[in-house]
Amino acid sequence: MPRDVAARSIKQVCDKGHGVGLTGLAVYLDLKDAIKRKGKQVIKAKYGNLFQIYEKITHKNAYLEPMKIYPAAHYTMGGLWIDYNLMTTIPGLYALGEINFSEHGANRLGASALMQTLAEGYFILPHTIAEYLATIPSDKVSTDHPAFKTAEQDVKNLLNRLLKLKGNKTVDEYHKELGLIMWNYCGMSRSASGLRIAQEKIKILEGEFWDNLNMVGTNDELNQTLEKAIHVADFMELSQLMVEDALHRNESCGCHLREEYQTQDCEAKRDDENYAYVAAWEYKGKDQPAVLHKEELTFKEVTPAQRCYK
User: Fold this and answer.
1) What's the DSSP call for residue 283?
2) Lower CB density within 10 Å: C or N end of the chain?
């Protein structure tokens, strides 16, 4: 809806005395027609628990009168300004996904946020960093520089190693297996025992990947299987770091629940005394433990608080 039309609509509603103020436009979900068309039992089977929660909070029966809808804090956490390359007003700082305003303003509704993250991640982000770096003045680096030669040879070695693999399983199979391990043991709910299982499973899967991957095609053509194999090889290392980080953080924070750290009401139990920091892991080489670097967070105006969904 155009902004001027929306403004006129709000004014008309206010002028008619519907109890709507400029500080908060009331929105209602009226299920009367749906109930009439499909029957109360069908609607109850789909949304009965939602109606129960609503009645418990408001003492109103949504089967008989419209349900008042209003945004909670969770839905207004986006809105950072970005340019077309996803860069914020701070040069070199990018905001990807539901944190920025580009597709849905300050809203962060699940479906739009997910599609935005996918679109920006696949089609925009691969070009943003390179374009930013291209704007930074620097001395021209010759391709004869030892660092260039080393990097070029490392890539060639990786491609040759992958192309020699003629095993029995496709890259898609390994990708799905890795995703299932992460979903089962390092998802929204995780435990120390489950994370240790994930560490072992990923290590075994990575070894099998480099022994039994069935690579097709050559490096002299557009080989999407080879491209995906490179990504999955990276995912093997990244997933191990994610599990290590999750195992290191002995608290529940946000929507990621460590099962050992929850309140009696099954709410996430924070530990801001020990874990109020930004973490960055430094890669030290294959089969070498990553090094954790911390930057402590200091809260002066607003302090973190225990979340409760009751």
Assistant:
1) P
2) C
Whole-model pTM? 0.65
- Residues 243, 249, 253: CA angle, nearest 5 degrees: 105
Residue 201 burial (CB count, 10 A): 19
Q: How is residue 184 written in tokens?
A: 């089962």
Q: Which residues contact 86 (CB under 8 A, 6 or more apart)?
A: 94, 95, 96, 100, 102, 120, 124, 125, 128
The 10s digit of each residue's pLDDT in 218-243 is: 988 899 999 999 999 999 999 999 99
Alpha helices in 135-293 (DSSP H): 146-163, 171-185, 192-212, 224-248, 272-275
Mean pLDDT of 191-215: 97
Does domain 154-248 correspond to CATH entry 1.20.58.100?
yes
- β-partners of residue 67 are 29
The DSSP secondary structure of 78-124, one letter per residue, reads: --B---TTSB-SSTT-B--STTBSTTTTT---HHHHHHHHHHIIIII
CA distances from 191 to 177, 186, 242 (A): 20, 8, 14
Q: How far is CA 69 from the centre of its chain?
A: 26
Contact 158, 207 (CB under 8 A): no
* Length of the chain measured in residues: 310
Q: Is the dihedral of CA 183, 187, 193, 195 positive or negative?
A: positive
Q: Where in the chain is the domain with CATH 1.20.58.100?
A: 154-248
